[in-house]
Amino acid sequence: LLDIRWFTESMEAGHPVIVQDRHILKVNPKPNGDPTAMLMKSYACQRRTPLKHHNSFLTEALEILSQNAEYNDNEGRSVAFRRAASVLKALPRRVRSMQDLRCLPCLGDHSQRVIKEILEDGSSREVESTRQSEQYQAMKALTGIFGVGVRTADRWFREGLRSPDDLIRTGQQLNREQQAGVQYYDDLQKPVTKAEADVISDIVEKAVHAVLPGAEIQLMGGFRRGKEVGHDVDFLITHPEEGKEEGLMPKITNWLKEQGLLLYQKTTRNSYLEKMDGPARASSNMDRFERCFSIFKLQKCAVSSSGWRAVRVDLVVSPYSQFAFATLGWTGSKNNYIYISLCKTVQNLYLRAKTEEEIFAYLGLEFIPPSERNA
Ligand code: DCT
Ligand code: MG
Q: What are the recorded Gene Ontology BP terms (predicted)?
């Protein structure tokens, strides 16, 4: 507990804290003597970031560069652009000049150059040429396929492939997940609306209660943060009697299959929370998390001609004692990944938390509601 206090107090004081591995934290001395630098906190989990902000003309540009760096396997650069964008999202007003950026953390030279050019010329040449580039467009199309990561997409790009159609045309070997990804590509590219998420919530609730009465279902991800559209719908499922949730996932998926509601599903024991630690991690409570990546067949209302659409749905089952931790991690946004690191620290100390508020309190962090976690 002391370690966490020290860690969060250091963060509160504006010292950059580097998470070296699961247990070792390093605090650098204060980077510069500017007292106003404290006004904008360095970590996304300390900032209030609303969904609708004032600087999308800048953040969209920086996020294109971040995405492109990820396509080029340049993690450091990708994170730097994403952090810069994230800070701008938390600003209370539109940036009008470089003066407005004085004292903000996380804005590297490159990000500043891009921002300056947009402020002066209305656009950045680097961003525009990236947006138009064949590689960026192909990588976007290929990684947009469910089941295709950057590495696979990059290999295909080098082989001259540019789109899902090219994969079909050349008869590429695809695994089951990628086959579904190609088959339902057009539907899965279309944003999922909140109204559709609500219909899916009702279906999931029906399925879960049919196989385990008393279970609790919570909408997660972007929709929990107030988004009106998303690329998928995320759910967390638990039961107040610890242990009852064991073996629940196959029962849910079987019920859905029997109703003809599932186009694809794959259940794995490990969740994204585990991936964060790499393959050699010690076992923990998180091992008991089950995650199902699925594609639902969603009937459209009578007015529509095509009858149904495919929608990506992620289900996670957590034991009741872990529900608060899973909720915090699973709500996102992805830029709040530090929550997950912190959550795990609390968990590894066997501290109990029933609510998100308790976890924030343990960490000495001010509570930030989901609608302001859109970093
Ligand atoms: N998550 C994470 N790290 C990942 C993947 C997911 O921390 N690599 C967490 C944060 C958000 C949550 O899981 C749901 O993930 P997504 O559905 O990918 O994000 P989202 O915010 O719901 O975005 P979208 O609205 O596009 O689905
Ligand atoms: Mg989501």
A: double-strand break repair via nonhomologous end joining
